[in-house]
Design goal:
Layout lengths: L4 H19 L13 H6 L11 H6 L14 H12 L7 H5 L3 H4 L22 H22 L1 H4 L2 H11 L1
């Protein structure tokens, strides 16, 4: 018996959809536009483990220049480094690194550094606003740095910052 194209298409869609949903395996979403390693890991987004490069990075030298094309994961890589080396993130190690190379093969420098993070996209690049904008951003970064490491610095850090602002 002859079937119209519409009927054939409908039958195909019914078979295809039934098969697709019955055979579908859960998958991880691609972290498009997400550069935070913590967000990628806690939201169970698709992640290719690059932590095997951390031991190589530690032996590469003191001055490294990270150059990659746009949208090639530079910011994501920096958040991996921040998560791995940050002294204040020791308690997040299982959450963020379980199942990665460095979880099973930690380096001696894991969680050994205080991380001061700047985001220069927050600074107004217009010449007439740049200096004031940069100072505001730096002040904010130093404040959050002090808050993050208050357990190590105590209140002396904030007193020092206040003294420097008065100069």
């Amino acid at each position: 018996m002859f079937k119209s194209n519409a009927v054939q298409v409908q039958e195909f869609e019914n078979v295809f959809m039934a098969g697709r949903y019955s055979l579908m395996v859960p998958y991880q979403k691609i972290p498009c536009g997400i550069s935070s390693y913590k967000t990628i890991r806690t939201q169970h987004r698709y992640y290719i483990d690059k932590t095997y490069d951390l031991p190589l990075l530690e032996h590469a030298g003191d001055f490294l220049f990270l150059i990659r094309p746009r949208r090639f994961g530079k910011s994501s890589w920096l958040t991996v480094l921040e998560s791995y080396y940050d002294l204040a993130r020791q308690e997040e190690r299982d959450l963020l690194f379980k199942g990665t190379f460095t979880y099973e093969h930690p380096t001696p420098k894991k969680h050994a550094y205080l991380i001061l993070k700047f985001n220069f996209s927050q600074v107004d690049p217009r010449p007439e606003n740049f200096e004031a904008s940069f100072h505001r951003h730096a002040k904010t970064c130093f404040h959050f740095f002090g808050e993050k490491y208050r357990a190590w610095f105590g209140d002396d850090y904030f007193e020092l910052i206040r003294e420097r602002q008065d100069e």
